[in-house]
Amino acid sequence: SVSAAHLLRLHQRFQLLDKDSSGSLRSEDLEAALSENPIGVRIVGAFFQLGQEMVDFPSFVRILAHFRPTEKNRTGDGVQPDPGTQMKCPSSVAFQLYDRDRDGKISRTELLQVLREMLGLQVTEEQLQSIAERAIQEANLDRDDTICFDEFRKSLEKVNINHKLSVRFLE
Amino acid sequence: MKMLLLGLLLLLLPAGAELSGSAAPLRGPAHASPSTPPRLLLPQPALERGAPGVASARSAEPAGGAGGGGGPGEPAAAEHPHHGGGYRVVQWEWSYVQTPYVIAIWLLVASVAKILFHLSQRFTTVVPESCMLILLGLVLGGVVLIASKKQLYQLDPALFFLFLLPTIVGDAGYFMPARLFFDNLGAILTYAVVGTLWNAFCTGFCLYAAKLLGVIEERVQADLMDFLLFGALISAVDPVAVLAVFEEVHVNEMLFIIVFGESLLNDAVTVVLYKVYISFVEVGPQNVQMADYFKGVASFLIVSVGGTLVGLVFAVILGFITRFTKKVRIIEPLFVFLLVYLAYLTAELFSLSAILSMTFCGIGANKYVEANISQKSRTTVKYTMKTLASIAETIIFIFLGISAVDKSKWAWDTGLVSCTLVFILLFRAVGVVGQTWVLNRFRLVPLDKIDQVVMSYGGLRGAVAFALVVLLDAEQVKAKDYFVATTIVVVFFTVMFQGLTIKPLVKWLKVPRSTNRKPTINEEIHERAFDHILTAVEDIAGLQGYHHWRDKWEQFDKNYLSKLLLRKSVYRKSELWEAYQKINIRDAISVIDQGGNVLTSARLSLPSMASRASFPEVTNVTNYLRENGSGVCLDLQVIDNVPGSKVEEDMETHHVLAGNLYKPRRRYQSHYSRHFMPLGEQERQDREVFQRNMRSRMETFKSTRHKRHKKERSLKKHRGSDTKDEGGDKPRRNVSWQDKASQQLV
């Protein structure tokens, strides 16, 4: 479902990123490409499964394919993760961004970490805490002080995630 | 209102220089120079409305019902000759006050008309306001015609282009949601440029063909150039009409921004085509050379890019100036108005696209100005702009109605009218479909059939076309009167018929409507995260896509532009924190709203919102002004929302003063509402709530007020900031919160 020309380009890119020409990318390679991104490390981490250290080319393409605009762009985020093709829906990728330890919930500390990375020196610690506190209170429906995936999705139900998380490049 | 009167006074000053007692100062210039100021004058000697400067000379003409205003029965103002001798205790100073009086009366009529329309709720939901205003104009025009046998008032193009249009465009441009606009910029530009050109040429050529075929009669003396000219001016989608109609329909933001953005950006195309064809017509079609065509294309680039640049320059100036207005807060709104208006006039001065200039000035300056100026100034700017724009729109439509009644100005040709109507509808639809097909290959969010239907149907023509056609020189364009009549019919048709039917159409097609989103902190956080993710994805894949450039722009903005244009104290604040603050303030307001006592909730230490009891109030909101652009809702008018079920639950749990006080209020959508200012409402109600409390608990209130201030101070200390005045320059100060809080209770 990806055209040959695109694959070629991606392959070239892959090779460019693969500094030691080992045929697979480590997280450091990817992070190097994202040096300016405040949450670059996290994003890279979100792509790797737990325990996985390297990413080979097919996985590379598959990861990027998560962000292909889907046909069901009109509807909301109703696309369930399809276990067959290992394609996750974009919101689960986003969720994994926050949930680094993959326990299925975003705890306050995890949220704080993300906020700190994103906001850096612009806000004080207390302000960060307030924001995190508020975010959890807003999204938290089952009163357990963390945000699980469903709550995450619900808090973003008005935002069309499929629209937001699409990059047009793999036709 | 201020702007109008100010301009008027400035222009009248030289005219009124020789006033002495009760002499008629305006009659001097009236006799001296019957016409000719700037280029935009009508050749007809008809009596114009008392428009500033330009028409004031003529309006001073001592004709009868000139002072009629809206009143049908006003007697002709008698000239007051100067009787020599004798002291007159009371004198009729009509010609002295005539012009401002007439203007004021018209504005009053327009405003009262609006009140009357809204008396009937059911009526207003079916019939758009613009329709009713046009009808009113028709009635008034008829009345004036009967009363004085000739048409006294008309939509004067000078008045329109210099005063009425900038008000509306300025308001629209300043409050344009920038993020949404730029996200869809490709589509907007395509429709604006390619679409308008397509419409103009096709309409022009087909009308000419119709003429050749004899469908249009011979008496319409127009050849190809004339028809092309006419096609150019009739094919542009009009921002005033789009705003007026879509305001009531509430389609989803993306659709609205595409249609509205198109109506703004096609100004450059219209201006260029119009000027080019006028010059071709003047020169005569035989003498047109190839070089002229190239000049036309070059002129288009210059007009559009030049206009944009002028706008951006003024935006930078405005941002820069507002950086230093801390000590002169009271005139901050004035800077905003002046510079935005100057952007328009300067572009007009160089005959560049004025609408583009003003739009981009507004878009560019908005972010910095809103951050720099005080809360009250923000409110003032918003309120004043909306008021002026609303009034301008009303006047435009009323005068469209009035101008239609004047039969001396137009001539009817059935063939021309019907052909034009058919062609513009047809070509608009075809154009939209074609362009959408191409665009969908490049867009992330495709525009489906329903969108296309709404877009073609929403291609409304309005007052701009009318003003342009009235500006035509009857000597050069012999068929002008026919064109005028056709334009009137087209404008009426689009505004009234399409305006009336678009709402049912939208409902029938189940077009996704705009959502009422109360801003949540989660959305803010996650949207920012998403932006980073997308940029990262693009970086990884080695693409330099939209997000890449957006990110680059944000970096540039953060490192250079904001440093230049933002006040130091503002610069350090983070947008996310600002958004968080706004949400918090909104909750604080809603606490009071619900009849809660701020004292008890203040103990909650607002930022953390620890108490569960107050949490339900989050859902019942009156919207605070949400200035941050992302995901903004573009509703232009008050939506009456039935509170959702969650709110009903909260109402039950929320006993006490619920019976006494204001029920959960309907939600107002903030940005484009011409009819409502949520913040003002809120303040008033809070004040009333307070007054009630005070009346019943005067003593305790006084003592608790002290406590509250103490509480406030301790809260401030807790946050590490100190002084009370809003001008403090300490970094990380939450000026807006304090400002708002002190407004609340004092």
UniProtKB/TrEMBL annotation, chain A:
Locations listed in the record: Cell membrane; Cytoplasm; Nucleus
GO biological process annotation, one example: protein transport
Molecular function (Gene Ontology), one example: calcium ion binding
Keyword terms of this UniProt record: Calcium, Cell membrane, Cytoplasm, Lipoprotein, Membrane, Metal-binding, Myristate, Nucleus, Phosphoprotein, Protein transport, Repeat, Transport
InterPro entries per record: Calcineurin_B_homologous (IPR051875), EF-hand-dom_pair (IPR011992), EF_Hand_1_Ca_BS (IPR018247), EF_hand_dom (IPR002048)
Pfam families: EF-hand_7
PANTHER family: EG:114D9.1 PROTEIN-RELATED (PTHR46002)
Protein name (Swiss-Prot/TrEMBL): Calcineurin-like EF-hand protein 2
Organism: Xiphophorus maculatus
